[in-house]
Amino acid sequence: KVFAVDGSVLEGGGQILRNSLAYSAILGYPVQIERIRAKRKTPGLAAQHLESFKLVRDVCKASFIGDKVGSTEVTFTPKRLAEGSFSADPKTAGAITLMVQASLFPLAFAGGTSEVDLKGGTDVDFSPPLDFLQRVLVPTVGRMGVEVSLDCDARGFFPKGGGHLGLWVTGLQGPLKPIDIGERGSVTRIAAVCYATPADGWLNEEDTMRTMEEFEPWLMSELADKGGKAPKCTVECNPEPSADGRTFMAAFEIVVETSTGGMFHGSSGAMEWKRNHGLYDIWYAAAEKALKPLKPQLASGAALDEHLVDQLILPASLAKGTSRILGAKELTLHAQTAIHIAEKMVPGVSFTVTNPKPNVTLIECTGIGRAPGAPPMQPPKGEEEVVVAKFPPGSLSEVAPEERWVADLRNDLGLFSAKFGVESKLEMGRDRIFVTGPGISKDDGWKTEMSRLLEYYELKGVQWR
Question: Which element (helix H / strand E) includes 65?
Fold first, then answer.
């Protein structure tokens, strides 16, 4: 039986592809992904997505129908996971870090030690930078039992790409361990890295000394907990190789660690560096850019970075035991999507999403204890059912989509979907909300909660169909 996944729901992009692909390879049942990136400006598979599919295909000796750029429907039928030497190269600036995300856990469940040669972009927009992968994701999943090492031969940037990364993954000896990052704790370490890609491999000593001397007290004042014990703070300035030796970029990357094992990451992204301009000035501008979203995260009460939250849903769903992940008040769309796909594809997984305090969201996931080498599973049973909440004409269709409360409603519907394991879709032009899920017509618990939500937004006169 082939399990169908709608590639347009919630985040509606690459994460659905990567997580569905990884689950198919690890759990051993075929998946058909339909309506791939249907709502995006350019629907279908991009080169980076296609390379991710091909890489995981090779790891599990799968058959793959729809293997071309632009495909809006693919069927992936896995066989046995096996370690080996693999490679992926989209021949664009496609994000290497996203190809790693797609393949990391299939490689971990493959046994032995696998090596992957990856080419593309290491630091490109709309994807995690290499620093996040190296200093945040890898050590965090290491706590769950995944051994990973990386070696970057060259940084790759948009539009040329050309980055080159070596990845080594040691196979698991048993199920993944659960992870508990359910408390924020206190800031214990601040570690900043400023890098640039000079042609000769040398950085101006005056710029680097000034940066290290001035950034440390500045970062302490911006990021350390007020009134608490002073954390350790380090600032490094490093030259990095670019693909062609003629691409001059600079960036500021920072990791903040807490006493409970939480990690937060800030990044300026790669910024063009004009060689007649001092590096201190561009690193300072880069640092200000990185700190702007980082500071509110640290102040939110969340225990870990919002981008790390969604990356831990997949391993938590497969781990043996209960993981606790404390995110911010509003889970990102990527996190909501990860929970949605896990509940659809992992038989026996259990999620509880609560708000222990008004400004935070606690995700508790009891995983299935999937062991390496375990026999293939059958896909989840149960036909999808649809219930429609229909409103009087004009209730939604006459509302401007950019109004703030509409965005709030969409976010709350995402949280509702994650909590009840359903999909809630707002169709403003037709004055209705679709709720889709297995067996929902026999359980009114979700409907009571939905009614409260609609009452809060003063949406009256609903008819259930």
Answer: strand 63-65
Does residue 379 belong to any structural domain of this protein?
no
Which residues, other chains included, contact 245 with Cβ-Cβ below 8 Å and sequence gap of 6+? 199
Q: Do 91 and 26 have their domain in common?
A: yes
Q: Are residues 206 and 287 in the same domain?
A: yes
Handedness of CA 43, 46, 50, 56 (dihedral sign): negative
Question: Do residues 437 and 423 make contact, with C-beta atoms less than 8 angstroms apart?
Answer: yes
Mark which of 247, 277, 299 sits at the end of a domain. 299
Residues 274, 418 within the same domain: no
What's the gap between Cα 183 and its chain centre? Answer: 20
Cα–Cα distance between 157 and 248 in angstroms, integer? 10
Q: What is the CATH number of the domain that holds 339?
A: 3.65.10.20
| Of 14, 8, 11, the residue nearest 414 (C-alpha) | 11
The verdict on 224 and 351 lying in the same domain is no
Q: 275: domain CATH number?
A: 3.30.360.20
CA distance 218 to 286: 14
| Per-residue tens of pLDDT for the chain, all 465 residues | 688 888 888 888 888 999 999 999 999 999 989 888 888 888 888 888 899 999 999 999 999 888 889 988 999 999 999 999 999 999 998 899 999 999 999 999 998 999 999 999 999 888 999 999 999 999 999 999 999 999 999 998 888 888 999 999 999 999 999 999 999 999 999 999 999 988 788 888 999 999 999 999 999 999 999 988 899 999 999 998 887 777 788 999 999 999 999 999 999 998 888 766 789 999 999 999 999 999 999 999 999 999 999 999 999 999 999 999 999 988 898 998 999 999 999 999 999 999 888 889 999 999 999 999 999 998 886 555 667 788 998 899 888 888 889 989 998 998 888 888 888 888 787 788 878 777 676 666 888 889 999 999 999 999 887
317 falls within a domain = yes
CATH of the domain at 450: 3.30.70
Catalytic positions: 334
Could you list the residue range(s) of the whole structural domain that residue 393 is in? Answer: 384-464
One domain, residues 90 and 140: yes
What is the pTM assigned to this prediction? 0.81
* Burial class of residue 21 (count of CB atoms within 10 Å of its CB; 0-12, 13-18, 19+): buried
Please, where are the H alpha helices in 319-397? Answer: 333-345
Domain boundary among 242, 264, 299: 299
Q: How many domains does the chain have?
A: 3
CA atoms of 254 and 55, how far apart (whole Å): 30
